[in-house]
Amino acid sequence: MVLLDVLLYIFVAVVSIQVFYFVFFFGKFAFLKHKKETPGNIPVSVVICAKNEAENLKKFLPSVINQDYPNFQIVLINDASYDDTFEVMEEFANKHNNIKLVNVVNNEAFWANKKYALTLGIKAAKHNHLLFTDADCKPLSKHWITEMSSCFNQTKSIVLGYGAYAKIKNSFLNKLIRFETFITAVQYFSFAKLGIPYMGVGRNLAYTKETFFNTNGFMDHMYIRSGDDDLFINQTATAQNTDICFTPDSFTESIPKKTYKDWKIQKRRHITTANHYKAKHKVLLAVFYVSQVLFWALATILLIPLFKWQLVLALILFRNLVQVLVFNKASKKLNENDLIFYLPLLELFLIGFQLSIFIKNLISKPKHWK
C-alpha cells in the first residue's frame, strides 16, 4: 500500500503538470484572438525545393502560380532529381515569366543535402521576403501569399504558418498523421506566442533573406540531413522577430503518407533534429511528453487494483476534460475539429508511435531527406 500511496502522489503531480501545460502553454494559442493584419503587398519570392517531384509539380504548382498577389516571384529548385522534375519546371517557366529556375547538381561536400539546394535557391531569389512550401503542397486559397506576408513588419522577420495534411475518409492512419501535425502546430504556435519559438514547418514558413544570411543560414547544422525548417527556426527565432499566421486562407495542404511504414520513415527523419534544439526547448518538450506517458501508465497501474479509484478516476476525467476544452478551441482555428472525438485513442497511439521511433533512432539514424 505504501508503494501505491507514493504512486498516487506522483500521479497527482503528473496531472498537475499536464493541466499546467494545457492551460498556460497550449491555451496561449487555443484562446488567442487573431489580429487582422493589413496587407502590405511587399514583393515576395516563393521558394520550392523539389527532388523527384515531377508529378506533384504538375498537380500543385498551378495553385501557387495562380495566387492573387500583385508582385511575387517563384523560385523552383531542382535538387539533383533523376526523374523529369527539371523538364516540368522548364515547361512552367516557359509559360510564366515570374518563375526562376535553380538546377542543383550533387556536390561532393554536400551530397544529397536539401539545405545546400535551398541555400542556392535563397541566393537566387530576387526579393528579400521569402515564403517556403513543398512541391507536394498546395495553398488552400488564392490569398495564401497575402495572408502570410501580411505578418511581416519592421520587427517581425519570421512567420510561422500551418501546413495541414489532406483528409482521407475512413482512415485511422490519416487521423493519426493529422493529429500529430495538429499537436505539433499547437505546440509551436503556443511557444511562439509565449516568446520562446522553437520550430516551424517547411510546408508553410516565411522569413527574410536578411535574417537568413545574418545568421549564416544553415551553416551551424549543415551536417545534419534534416532540419532546414525547425533547426533554422530554433537557432534564429526570438520573441521579437517571430509572428504566427493561422487564418484559414494562410493554410497549405500536403499529401499524407498512405502506410505506417512510410510515415514512420518520415517521422524518424524529423525527430532526429529535436536532439539539436536549444536546451530550454528540449526540457520543456521532454517534460510534457514524459508527463503524458506517466499519466496513462500510472492511471492504469492505480486503476487495476482499484486503489482509491474514485480519486484516480476524478483526476483522469479532470485532466482529459481540460485537454478536450483546450484542444477543441485550437482545432477550430486549424480546421481539425473531427479529431477531437477520437482524442484519447489518438493520443495513446501517438505516444506509442513516438516511443517506437525514439528506440529505433537509438539503433540507427536516417540518412537522406528524400
UniProtKB/TrEMBL annotation:
Organism: Xanthomarina gelatinilytica
TM spans (from-to): 6-26, 283-303, 309-327, 339-359
InterPro entries hit by this protein: Glyco_trans_2-like (IPR001173), Nucleotide-diphossugar_trans (IPR029044)
GO MF: glycosyltransferase activity
Domain of life: Bacteria
Keywords: Glycosyltransferase, Membrane, Transferase, Transmembrane, Transmembrane helix
Keyword Amino-acid biosynthesis: no
Protein family membership: Belongs to the glycosyltransferase 2 family.
Keyword hit for Hydrolase: no
Residue ranges of domain Glycosyltransferase 2-like in the record: 45-179, 185-317
Protein name: N-acetylglucosaminyltransferase
